[in-house]
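INFO  loader      accepted 1 record
INFO  loader      residues=324
INFO  predictor   begin
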Amino acid sequence: MKMDSNNSWKPNLFVPGFAKCGTTAVCDYLAQHPSIYVIEHKEPGTLAIGETVRAWPLWYGKIDRKIADEPLWSYEKYKRFFHEHKDKKFRVDGTPLYSLIENFAEKLENFSSDTKVILILREQMSRICSLYLFTYARHKEDNFLDWIEKYLAAHKSSFFYYDTTLEFYRVFKNNLLVIENEQLRHQPQQVMDDVFKFLNLRNIGLKPLNSNVSIINPRDSKIYRKLVENSLKPASKISNIGIWFLKGFGLTEKDDLYYKFARAAPDRLMLRLFSHMAQQRKERGNQYEILGSQMPDCIAKLLREDYEKTIRFCKERGLLTSHS
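INFO  predictor   done
INFO  writer      dumping tokens
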């Protein structure tokens, strides 16, 4: 992690975990506050470059234990985006990858002084089912038990909360807040009121969010799966032509217009359509109960015990929001 003595531009609010627990929702709610800036894409991952993870989980993607530069944001790009919003009271980096890095809490404190941290916990069974469905386009494992054996059983420690939560508490103490996902889903306004109080900011009325749902799963038709898989490829020919056109006018990745076009390319618009379709599918029936019933008891027990232990610890230390 690079050190920089100038703190005026640096992010000072981090939402480093945990994956599939609601970090996107929290960041989207935070972004609605006029005193808060959440970096574009929410998960730049810049501070992970060159760091070592405790045990790289296969479900997170094919990246070596030593994290390389790609596909994460460069430090220069990271600094530029935050520097442009240094007038905001809080500047947010919401990268869940950070929760997997060895001794990240201590490194984070050294990087940015007066930092606050928010962690989100989620009941493990629904979290794992969500992860399976959300990453289906990547792993394509139709059999949930096969996925558990390949992606979960060998990487159980990457799902645990307790040790990482304890590490952040030891470093940040009262500058750490923990949210329970179920309360965030059912009482978002009340939970975020607690978050704004934690940040010493006035409360605001929140706009509702769309769920970050899985856009593809084993029960979808082959045609639908193919459409989604094609849309997930790096860039369509149309968007490449558009970017070439912008470069012809001298615009580069550093320019806002270039960046906004890349984000609004046709393939991204297709993803919005798929997301809408997935939301409708989710409303027709929840698959979590079906999948959860297949979870081996030995793994379910380990994950449940870690979750319950973490919740007890957070309650004893007064780290949970009052509505968790």
